[in-house]
Amino acid sequence: MKLYSYFRSSAAYRVRIVLNLKHISYDTIPVHLVRHGGEQNSAEYLDVNPQGLVPSLDITPTINTGERELKPQIITQSTAIIEYLEEAFPQPALLPINLIERAYIRTLMQIIACDIHPVNNLRVLHYLEECFDCDKAEKITWYHHWLATGFAAFERLLIENGSTHYCCHKQVTLADVYLIPQVYNALRFNLDMSPYPTINRIYQHCIQIPAFVDAAPEQQPDADI
Amino acid sequence: MKLYSYFRSSAAYRVRIVLNLKHISYDTIPVHLVRHGGEQNSAEYLDVNPQGLVPSLDITPTINTGERELKPQIITQSTAIIEYLEEAFPQPALLPINLIERAYIRTLMQIIACDIHPVNNLRVLHYLEECFDCDKAEKITWYHHWLATGFAAFERLLIENGSTHYCCHKQVTLADVYLIPQVYNALRFNLDMSPYPTINRIYQHCIQIPAFVDAAPEQQPDADI
User: DSSP code of A37?
Assistant: First the structure.
């Protein structure tokens, strides 16, 4: 497999954690979201991912097909990639068997994947600047607002469900996979994390797990921190 | 089941379509997102959904439990609700069996659920106004920008995959369930839809299906169009 990735993309970070947890080896193809006006906007990359976003996962099988060239099989959108990996490589399971628990974990995933991350990603921040000529401080206020709004709901759900060292149960699930990269970004942007003790506890616990350590931005081949 | 819904919410509209396609009867509990400063912000509703968003689906079983009161079982986030309904009520299937096709449909779902809808929903438009004092025309420009960006990628994927009257194959899938409410909103906000002939064709076809007709905003008990 080949993962089109950017070290700082929290959506790519999620996919890297899942690949590591499931012991799936992959090659990283770096797509630098800032350099050269954003490499994701090149015609070449738009053929891979028409949205011009990372991550994209190329799962084209490497069978010798003689003269026929296989159409590349590429999955885009981190949640589509991750649900695919969970179905195609079921062990270790990152979603429980119980349907209501699965739904709860998907709720936690979507709070981050729908209501925090897309409102705060690079292209939205750029467009804010373009439309409203806002400065860095205004962009940070915007960024913090959506993080704080989302984390407050996330924290409340964790407390109501008695979370300790993981979001759910006594093992890693996809909820942790989505939470950890978002907290990493929150810390990078200096959000005050003191209102979220449960999230902090889970973060401190999960970042010590090898699959999370190896997926971290600073461990990536394209890291230019 | 009880669906906390707002007639114009495209996320609630998706869930209504799935409930109808699967012939699941439900009661609507209206949550008016505008009236009284937004009924979703009441303490009562925040107990149902700590994010203060619609939809929420109450699936608490109605068993006579004697003196013990069942803890309400409520699922929030439309994608978590819809994946739950697909697992708990598999017929008719709204995702195919093939894992790569499932991934493709989830990609289409997420283009709308992550990269169009959350950047354009009411709370984001309100916050734009609060932060940047923008007027109605600026909000419409913002709204159209994310619709056009997302629809362009969606259209390209549909063309590459040979879509005709549905997003995928010859039957309704979750991709159609996500697309139709988003097009409904685009038309309401007068987006020029001419660059998206495939999306238009699928929209015109799907809005004639009874499950989609009955889920439409103007058919809801809380419609105040």
Answer: G
Which residues touch B72 (CB under 8 Å, ≥6 apart)? B48, B58, B60
Matching CATH topology for B2-91 and B99-213? no
> pLDDT tens per residue, chain B (225 residues)?
999 999 999 999 999 999 999 999 999 999 999 888 899 999 999 999 999 999 999 999 876 666 656 678 999 999 999 999 999 999 999 999 999 999 999 999 999 999 999 999 999 999 999 999 999 999 999 999 999 999 999 999 999 999 999 999 889 999 999 999 999 999 999 999 999 999 999 999 999 999 999 999 999 999 987
Inter-CA distances, A64 with A74, B181, B203, Å: 18, 43, 41
**Closest by Cα among B211, B176, B117 to A118:** B117
Please tell me what DSSP assigns to residue A31: -
Q: CB distance A80–B152 less than 8 Å?
A: no
In this structure, whether the domain defined by A99-213 belongs to CATH 3.30.830.10 is answered with no
Is A103 close to B75, i.e. CB distance below 8 A? yes
Strands A2-5 and A56-58: antiparallel
> Which backbone phi and psi does A164 adopt, to 5 degrees?
-120, -90
Using a CB-CB distance cutoff of 8 angstroms, which residues of chain B are in contact with residue A132?
Answer: 131-132, 134, 138
Residue B75 to chain A, least CA–CA distance (Å): 7
Q: If you write DSSP's letter for every residue of A46-94 in order, what string do you get?
A: HHH-TT--S-EEE-------TTPPPPP-EEESHHHHHHHHHHHS-SS-S
Measure the CA dihedral B105/B107/B109/B113, to 10°: 170
Q: Looking at chain B, which residue has its C-alpha nearest residue A73? A: B100
Distance of alpha carbon B78 from alpha carbon B182, whole angstroms: 14
Instruction: Inform me whether the C-beta atom of residue A132 falls under 8 Å from chain B C-beta atoms.
Output: yes
With beta carbons less than 8 A apart as the criterion, state whether B118 and B78 touch: no
State which residue of chain B sits closest to A127, comparing Cα positions: B142
Domain ranges of chain B: 2-91, 99-213
Q: How many CB pairs under 8 A join A and B?
A: 128
CA–CA separation, A20 and B152 (whole Å): 33
> Is residue A79 within 8 Å of B98, Cβ to Cβ?
no
Q: Is the ipTM of this complex over 0.90?
A: yes
Helix, strand, coil tally for chain A in percent (to 5): 55, 5, 40
Q: What is the CATH number of domain A2-91?
A: 3.40.30.10
Burial class (CB in 10 A: 0-12, 13-18, 19+), A221: exposed
The closest CB to that of A114, out of B118, B132, B156, belongs to: B118
